[in-house]
Amino acid sequence: MMKELVQNLISDLEKDNPGAEAVALYQNGETVLSKHFTPDRPRLIYSHTKSFVSTLAGMAIDEGKLTLDTTLCSLLPEYDRIITDEGVKTITLRHLLTMSSGFGGAFLMGVNRRPGEGMPDYVGYMLAKKPVNVPGEKFQYSNADTHLAGCMVEKAVGETLLRYAYRKLFAPLGIGYPAWETDPAGTAFGGSGLYLRNEEMMRLGILYLQEGVWNGERLLSREWVKQAGAQQIATGIADPWSSGYGYQFWMIPQRENAFRADGAYGQYSLVFPKENAVVGIQCCEENDLARFGAMLRHHL
Predict the structure, then answer these.
(1) Which of 58, 84, 140, 260 is 20 to 30 Å apart from 239, CA to CA?
(2) Which region holds residue 136: left if phi is over 0, alpha if psi is between -120 and 50, else beta?
(3) Separation CA 165–CA 55 (nearest Å)
(4) Are 45 and 263 within 8 A, CB to CB?
(5) Neighbours of 269 (CB within 10 A)
(6) What DSSP character marks residue 107?
(7) What is the C-alpha separation between 221 and 139, in angstroms, rounded?
(8) Each residue's pLDDT tens digit, 228-262
(9) What is the pTM (predicted TM-score) of this model?
(10) What would the 3-class secondary structure string for 267-280 be?
(11) Do residues 262 and 268 touch, judged by C-beta distance below 8 A?
(12) Are 146 and 96 in contact (CB under 8 A)?
């Protein structure tokens, strides 16, 4: 059934493509469909990067080097002198992964990083702010929350985030050493910036579909997979497609227990546990995302 649905989507895109670059279906242990509308090369996956950072946080938790209740400031004592609000000291990894830090704005987004927001120190820029909400109470999508979570992982594991990612995740998944934007201090940027091919990108979804096991080796605990891919916070967004959020994954309300990693302009890894399937999609920036989204929801 899922194969037929994805094939129908591909067939429609062959007739009228609003901007899809690649579509692939992995089901029951193999890639059963893969269609490229443009040359197969690594592309920026935008906020899909966030789900990779969440996975690294889960791995650090599995190793006992972090907990969801570890506070941000406990790992960054060098910033104590610039903190002007005690609420900042209560922000935990859980708050960052659920986009509920309390900072109350969308910080370090692409449109603002290019002109220099946060320079020369993204971490200091954020920690000097005063939260406008109690941490944990309200969802507010922000690249800064994920980047701070990545900085926590880096501090906790004692090596750079990219090196840790390569050793624990990219190399085992056969991705290799990808290009990844860094912040001004040289830390891989948690909120975006990772470049991957479609079938590399969707391997993260396959890892979650397989409950953290890859080629017979457990890379991630089953408990983390269960938590990250389940709703942890309501977003307050009316659109069902964006109404529930886990640990850097969005819920897919149309299907049972389904969730997705999601990047701007249509960089998706859609995980469908009931159907034992993952659909990977990449789209170009100059697309008609509203029309593509309607096609996607119609078919899947």
Answers:
(1) 58
(2) left
(3) 9
(4) yes
(5) 30
(6) -
(7) 26
(8) 999 999 999 999 999 999 999 999 998 999 999 99
(9) 0.98
(10) EEEEEECCCCEEEE
(11) yes
(12) yes
